[in-house]
Amino acid sequence: MKVKDMMHKGVDWVSPDTPITEIAKLMQAHDIGCIPIGHDDHLIGMVTDRDIVCKGLVSKDFNPARTMARDVMTKGIHCCREDDDLAKAVHHMETLKIRRLPVINKSKRMVGMISLGDVGHSAGADLLSQCMKSVSAHH
């Protein structure tokens, strides 16, 4: 199975200058746990619900009105291609211990997102079990 056959399509990104309050509202509205961050038409990072809590809420000088995506985002982006085999993408997620992976096309444009939930709906039991154990292991 190919990644494009089971990914969430039509994922958008926001600017690093987006307030985290807006990001949290987007997450709630779309029932998602992460938002890709882009600048100058390139992905530069990711903000997860965990980033908002662990890097934002608990910081000593936290101010929700002034905290932006750039303040809490995980820098750097790992992704897979839409034509990759699902097993290859899952292996990438296992190696990086990540739960979500942006999907790009041949033009290096983000066209979707693959998550552990997607893997759970589409992968065989062995692949899913291996992925869950690796990704869920303590870092």
Structure description:
With 139 residues, the protein is of the alpha+beta class. It has a single domain (3-136), classed as CBS-domain, CATH 3.10.580. Helices cover 39% and strands 22% of the residues. The protein contains six helices and seven strands. It has a four-stranded mixed sheet with strand order 1-7-6-5. A three-stranded antiparallel sheet has the order 2-3-4. Helix 4 (86-96) runs parallel beside helix 6. Keywords: CBS domain. It holds the Pfam family CBS. InterPro entries: CBS_dom, CBS_dom_sf, Diverse_CBS-Domain. Residues 7-62, 73-129 form the CBS domain.
Instruction: Give the overall form.
Output: globular
Radius of gyration: 15 Å
* Number of DSSP helical runs: 6
CATH superfamily name? CBS-domain
Q: From N to C, what is the helix and strand string?
A: EHEEHHEEHEEHH
- The proportion of residues in beta strands is 15-25%
The percent range for helix content is 25-40%
Mean pLDDT: 86
What would CATH call the architecture? Answer: Roll
Helix/strand/pairing class, anyone? alpha+beta
Query: How are the strands of the largest sheet arranged?
Result: 1-7-6-5
Number of domains: 1
Sheet having the most strands = 4 strands, mixed
CATH topology: CBS-domain
Based on DSSP secondary structure assignment, what is the total number of beta strands?
7
| Poorly predicted residue ranges | none
Protein name: Inosine-5-monophosphate dehydrogenase
Organism: Bradyrhizobium macuxiense
Domain CBS: 7-62, 73-129
InterPro entries: CBS_dom, CBS_dom_sf, Diverse_CBS-Domain
